[in-house]
Design a protein that fits this description.
single chain, alpha+beta, eight-stranded mixed β-sheet, 8 helices, 27 strands, 29% strand, elongated
């Protein structure tokens, strides 16, 4: 199988322009700033790689709050590639379909005395939760406008000539980044460069997809290290015909049997276990969160619904994504068939979804969710994936069977007089104990009661998902309300008897 790499580099060209508010950029790769701009770290990145024997497509989100004239994007590629527009809703849809959910055990408490009229029901709680001419030795192999972007694909065999071309065309490449560019030139890579077309405005920034023939199983950690701090969170979805895992990095999976629910905090030890694995590996390991078989039509339906998915139900629930997260038309509708390559929003979406499933046998695909809080020092080679020896599914719904610190009501007759701790349900300890070992292959954040977990990012260059909610409080609230109702009934009955 021919190995090819995708590497995304975000560069801020020309001089810094003062703008109000936070300057943010997001891409799968290095974040370069003009000399006058103070760099801020990448905190989290999201990538999606669709892999089939006939085509590989890399999806990446791009957000930039600076001046459009200072935005530029460079991607080392091999050969020529097809560039298209995507939307945040595609990432949000894959995220919501695969997000890790933690389901606590049912509380096991002694029932009230018989004939008290309380019933025996219980509540389990839970909620889902401007391109110029090339310098000598640099060849322009393809040039086109894609939506709001001007794109050019370059071939170069001399890294100094490529550096001169980039500098001449306004790409500010810091001196300490040049060796990374040199390495990709030496390895025979070509390059895709992108800028915003004039007068497009910040609101025109859109995620992009880059497709190439054949199967590519590598992602761009060397470039992704540029602009990051000591630790950066990276989430990767691999859409294909089977389960994938890292080939050249250690990986692990947290088994349900390792999880323990603490009723005093309404939290599991998921975060603790992840931190233990990361500490043991010195932040070089990747967690295989889940690997799910999903119907292509289901994924498409969630994208069409604006990223909404609530246990399989659609409609009746307000969309969480803003209109700008969805697909937008590109080109000039008044320019005619030959004037601007106009595509309606529906046509853009159709092309994007088609690329997601290109070359797949269907009607279902396997989506593997992988994440790491990776150390900058470990990002010295690109991230290579391989088919897992174990092709079984890994559910994103984690069911906890062990618990500690459960408090149950104490009855005097039919009256709740006190509440005290009981023994652990199913044994275990609150700290849990991460079993298993780290290796080159194997098997997100701590989440209470059936809550969806998402990475949280902020500041600088970031491709971050919004923070997930804490659904444990809902479970506790339901239990508290149930206790209050029962206690209220007891007081009412005693009052009636005294009357």
């Amino acid at each position: 199988m021919r190995r090819s790499d995708f590497v995304l580099v975000l560069v801020a060209a020309a001089a810094a322009v003062s703008v109000s508010g936070e300057r943010r950029a997001a891409a799968c790769g290095g974040c370069f700033h003009p000399p006058a701009q103070v760099a801020s770290d990448i905190t989290d990145e999201r990538m999606l790689l669709s892999v089939s024997p006939t085509q590989t497509t890399l999806y990446d989100q791009i957000r930039y709050s600076g001046s459009p004239s200072s935005f530029a994007w460079v991607l080392p590629i091999q050969g020529t590639v097809d560039v298209g527009l995507s939307a945040d809703v595609l990432f949000d849809s894959i995220d919501v379909l695969t997000a890790t959910q933690i389901t606590p055990p049912l509380p096991v408490c002694p029932p009230p005395p018989p004939n008290c009229g309380y019933g025996s029901g219980s509540s389990s709680g839970g909620a889902s939760a401007a391109i110029g001419t090339g310098a000598p030795a640099v060849t322009v192999t393809k040039q086109e406008n894609v939506g709001p972007y001007a794109t050019v694909q370059l071939h170069a065999t001399d890294s100094s000539a490529l550096a001169a071309w980039l500098a001449q065309n306004g790409y500010n490449i810091p001196a300490d980044v040049q060796p990374v560019i040199d390495a990709y030139v030496t390895e025979g890579f070509d390059f895709l460069a992108m800028k915003l077309l004039p007068n497009e405005g910040i609101q025109a920034m859109r995620p992009v997809r880059v497709s190439m023939p054949g199967a590519s199983l590598s992602l761009p950690l060397r470039m992704a290290s540029i602009g990051t701090g000591a630790i950066v969170g990276i989430s990767i979805w691999v859409v294909g015909d089977g389960r994938y895992e890292p080939q050249n990095f250690p990986s692990y999976h947290i088994d349900d049997s390792q999880l323990v629910w603490d009723w005093s905090t309404n939290l599991s030890n998921y975060t603790t276990l992840r931190a233990e694995f990361e500490g043991t590996s010195h932040n070089t390991a990747w967690e295989i969160e889940s690997s799910l078989t999903l119907n292509e039509q289901l994924i498409t339906s969630v994208i069409l619904s604006g990223g909404q998915y609530y246990g399989g139900g659609f409609g009746g629930v307000p969309a969480t994504a803003s209109a700008s997260d969805d697909y937008l038309p590109v080109g000039d509708p008044d320019a005619g068939a030959d004037g601007g390559g106009y595509q309606s929003a529906e046509e853009v979406r159709t092309a994007d979804v088609a690329a997601l499933f290109a070359g797949m046998a269907g009607p279902s695909v396997r989506v593997t969710r992988i994440r790491s809080d990776i150390a900058h020092a470990a990002m010295t080679s690109d991230f290579v994936i391989q088919a897992s020896a174990d092709q079984s599914e890994l559910s994103n719904v984690r069911t906890v069977t062990q618990s500690v610190n459960l408090t149950c009501p104490v009855y005097s007759g039919c009256v709740v007089v006190d509440a005290g701790p009981t023994s652990s349900n199913g044994g275990g300890s609150s700290s849990g104990g991460a079993s298993g070992s780290l290796g080159s292959s194997g098997g997100s954040s701590g989440a209470p009661a059936t809550t969806t977990t998402k990475p949280d990012g902020g500041g600088g260059c970031a491709a971050s998902a919004p923070s997930g909610g804490d659904a444990a409080a809902e479970f506790a609230a339901i239990a508290s309300m149930l206790g209050a109702v029962l206690f209220g009934r007891v007081r009412s009955r005693r009052k009636s008897n005294r009357g």
